Amino acid sequence: MDDTLQLEKIRFTLELQFREQLVRRPEFPFFQSVGLKDIFQSFRNTDGTFIGTIHLKWNSGKTWTREKWIDSQEDSEDFIRKTYQDKPFSTEKLIVLHYIEEVKRREKIRAEHEIKELLKDGKMLWN
Asked: Nearest-5° angle of CA 79, CA 81, CA 86?
């Protein structure tokens, strides 16, 4: 069998498995809303041989599409670095800010719930 065809079959299978695992992650539906528009995943076989890096990109059709497979580790590192350097914002900082706001929101909900429980039980003292 032709090595190129074999590699394409392996990559096709890896992409399917990766996408299946990706959509099961709880944060998956929120990637694009926090500014994550590119996903990269590198693959190696059991002996450590580099198979490639897949690049998935969010498009306006509300779906993740395969942009390309990158053939070498060096090329993929360069491409990923350039992709993230060209962004006008920091995805990592957006994720941290989102986390901080989510903690505040949950704390507010928890406090409101506690107040309701105290009022319901008549244990809250009014001055």
From this structure: 95
Q: For all residues of the chain together, what is the average pLDDT?
A: 88
CA–CA separation, 77 vs 67, rounded Å? 16
> Which residues, given as ranges, of the chain have pLDDT below 50?
none
How far from 30 is each of 10, 37, 47, 99, CA to CA, in Å?
Answer: 29, 11, 35, 12
Name the nearest CA neighbour of 42 among 57, 27, 28, 53: 53
What is the C-alpha to C-alpha distance for residues 11 and 13, in angstroms, rounded to an integer? Answer: 5
The whole-model pTM stands at 0.64
Instruction: Write the CB contacts of 11 (distance below 8 Å, at least 6 apart in sequence).
Output: 43, 51, 52, 54, 69
> What letter would DSSP give residue 47?
T
